[in-house]
Please model this.
Amino acid sequence: MTIYALIPILLVLIMIVAFSILWPLAIGAAYSPSSLRVVRKMLDMAEVDSEDLVYDLGSGDGRIVIEAARRYNAWGVGVEADPLRVLWSKVNILKLGLRQQVKIIWGNLFHQNLSHATVVILFLWGRTNEKLKYKLQDELEPGSRVVSYVWKFEGWNPIKIDERERIYLYIIGESDKPNGQ
Ligand SMILES: C[S@@+](CC[C@H](N)C(=O)[O-])C[C@H]1O[C@@H](n2cnc3c(N)ncnc32)[C@H](O)[C@@H]1O
Model:
């Protein structure tokens, strides 16, 4: 085999990697993993338990939904646009024997139905959170918890705040009411 025969393979690999990086940037946010400390604080703040179905919108390597299942015995669904991270998280879930409890969906989080989630975790960008606000209000049941790392929702009142870590907990039906109602 000559070196030239490898060029098409290389080009395909470059295109897959470029797509994995650029598509999430265009539709939501870049990849940046939460530390395990922050993951646990987010799940603790939402008081996740075995009755919960935890969605991580933009799930990266799946660490949040994996931790929700392992430590809190909850159910988990991750939605991720980057196909390489989806593959990586699926392999991890298989290795950990969590296939019955945790699912990863490859796709755009804006196209997923969230109505079964009881907890939604977000580590995206501010403008992506703002776009997502009305979908969360429309699809989540009152009482569902939304935890956002780093970014606040404009006009919503957080029920709990961890100022140091910049973690904000919102409850649908309470946090999203106009002030004074
Ligand atoms: C800041 S990272 C957070 C990863 C993970 N949730 C964590 O906290 O470790 C944001 C993730 O969202 C993904 N993402 C961005 N926009 C998205 C979209 N519209 N649909 C699905 N995934 C998206 C990115 O690919 C990236 O993996």
About this structure: The longest helix spans residues 7-27. Residues 24, 27-29, 31-34, 56, 58-60, 63-64, 79-82, 85, 108-110, 123-124 surround S-adenosylmethionine (CB under 6 Å). The longest strand covers residues 75-80.
